[in-house]
């Protein structure tokens, strides 16, 4: 009997059943932060250009003025996004072949090196190239992090833990924008700016300090990730059942400290071991092809809105005649809404089906954009609108991260997320490269309506998607 039990303990379906009965986070609590460092760096990197680029442009583009910065912002953002797409489509699938843990360290190292390179460049062309290198790392990292969380979080709380780790993203965005305001804008009486801001004719290198900080954050992340265990679901997909069994046993020991474990219900839901390249696992299956097309369109339209605000809100406001310090302060206050939305998503993310969060986000973003556009000289109203806008366009993201990874089997989970999120980032390029230069001629209200329209379109598409909340991963994606 003991021999039979031992053999069963290392069967694929039984390992999955043991994972699915866990109702609490079953890795060391510190690992939430270790995984979240990647999110922190990624969003620090996305948002640090928001306020700081006006100073950056004046340093690396001869004669660049605050009003001109919007004309030069598009290319580095688009090349960063292109690097993101390349990284996520080429590097992310490697994690489906060699494992999550090793690639999590490689991608974070590449991201950090790209940020350090950005900190030392002296020419616009080199700045653009360095942004591309950084994007290559963070694109792959984001996909792998989301797949990893999805595979180790409790079945009933996948969106919750993705959202909880997304709080680190909010912290990264907050640091990126507020450090930009402190280090790269001139001292200005409040509320038009920060009276203790540091930028001046003698201190024009604050933007370099920001990218240096980003690089150091990434390198710290590499060192911390050495402690992570490999994903047990990935180990099963590779036929490494003994190793998976050991990881799950350790998770069960941690879970047992919170109370008795539920009985194991082995439903025989086991994936086939990976035998083909990850892209083949998706494109040879019509089910996953349909899912991919829908998600890809959803992310593409939605990222038009996200990146117009995340990377270009300050320069957008400057092009609408806001003084740079005031524009930076309005954008910086908006990150308070980002932090709040991450907390709300972590607490309430499991209360609704995943796809229903997008219409809520789109509505809030429209309200926030309307408040900013109609604020005129009312700075308080502009700040409230900014917080509502940042709350709205970020609220759906961690839940959609969890939802997207749930659409694919373990053997191609990172690859599937990489496809839809990576290609989707091309929408961010459209928002910055095509729409942003039109802002001065469009006017305030039309500009915000056009930018917000991307998220509205994404929300409509999401409603045609599948329901995944609380279901077993192997049931959703066999």
TrEMBL record:
Domain of life: Bacteria
Transmembrane regions: 21-44, 72-91, 103-121, 127-149, 161-185, 205-224, 292-310, 330-349, 356-373, 379-403, 415-439, 445-466
Topology relative to the membrane: Multi-pass membrane protein
Annotated localization: Cell membrane
GO cellular component, one term: plasma membrane
Gene Ontology molecular functions: transmembrane transporter activity
Residue stretches making up the Major facilitator superfamily (MFS) profile domain: 31-470
Main localization category: membrane
Statement: the UniProt record of this protein carries the keyword Hydrolase: no
Entry keywords, A to Z: Membrane, Transmembrane, Transmembrane helix, Transport
InterPro entries membership: MFS_dom, MFS_sugar_transport-like, MFS_trans_sf, Sugar_transporter_CS
Protein name: MFS transporter
Organism phylogeny: Bacteria, Bacillati, Bacillota, Bacilli, Bacillales
């Amino acid at each position: 009997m003991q021999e039979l039990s031992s053999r069963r303990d290392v069967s694929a379906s039984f390992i999955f059943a043991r994972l699915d009965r866990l109702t609490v986070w079953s890795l060391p609590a510190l690992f939430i932060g270790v995984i979240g460092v990647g999110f922190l760096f990624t969003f620090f990197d996305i948002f640090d250009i928001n306020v700081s680029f006006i100073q950056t442009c004046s340093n690396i583009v001869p004669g660049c003025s605050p009003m001109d910065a919007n004309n030069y912002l598009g290319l580095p953002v688009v090349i960063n996004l292109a690097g993101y797409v390349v990284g996520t489509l080429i590097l992310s699938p490697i994690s489906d072949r060699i494992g999550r843990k090793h690639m999590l360290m490689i991608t974070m190292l590449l991201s950090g090196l790209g940020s350090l390179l950005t900190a030392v460049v002296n020419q616009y062309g080199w700045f653009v190239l360095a942004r591309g290198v950084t994007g290559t790392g963070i694109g792959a990292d984001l996909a792998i992090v989301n797949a990893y969380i999805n595979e180790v979080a409790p079945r009933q709380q996948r969106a919750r833990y993705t959202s909880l780790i997304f709080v680190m993203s909010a912290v990264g965005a907050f640091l990126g924008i507020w450090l930009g305001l402190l280090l790269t804008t001139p001292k200005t009486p409040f509320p038009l700016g920060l009276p203790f801001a540091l930028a001046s004719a003698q201190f024009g290198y604050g933007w370099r300090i920001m990218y240096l900080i980003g690089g150091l954050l990434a390198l710290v992340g590499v060192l911390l990730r050495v402690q992570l265990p490999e994903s047990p679901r990935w180990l099963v997909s590779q036929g490494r059942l003994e190793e998976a069994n050991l990881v799950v046993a350790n998770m069960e020991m941690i879970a047992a400290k919170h109370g008795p474990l539920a009985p194991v219900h082995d439903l025989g839901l086991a994936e086939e071991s990976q035998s083909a390249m990850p892209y083949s696992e998706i494109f040879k299956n019509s089910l996953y092809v349909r899912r991919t097309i829908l998600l890809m369109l959803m992310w593409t339209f939605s990222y038009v809105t996200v990146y117009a605000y995340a990377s270009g809100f300050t320069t957008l406001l400057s092009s609408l005649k806001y003084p740079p310090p005031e524009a930076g302060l309005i954008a910086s206050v908006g990150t308070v809404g980002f932090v709040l939305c991450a907390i709300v998503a972590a607490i309430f993310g499991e209360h609704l089906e995943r796809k229903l969060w997008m219409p809520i986000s789109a509505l809030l973003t429209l309200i926030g954009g309307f408040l900013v556009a109609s604020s005129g000289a009312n700075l308080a109203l502009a700040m409230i609108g900014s917080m509502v806008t940042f709350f709205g366009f970020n609220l759906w993201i961690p839940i959609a991260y969890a939802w997207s990874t749930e659409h694919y089997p373990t053997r191609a989970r990172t690859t599937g997320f990489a496809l839809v999120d990576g290609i989707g980032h091309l929408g961010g390029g459209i928002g910055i490269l095509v729409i942003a230069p039109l802002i001065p001629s469009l006017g305030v209200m039309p500009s915000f309506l056009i930018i917000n329209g991307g998220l509205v379109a994404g929300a409509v598409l999401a409603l045609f998607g599948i329901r995944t909340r609380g279901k077993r991963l192997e049931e959703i994606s066999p």
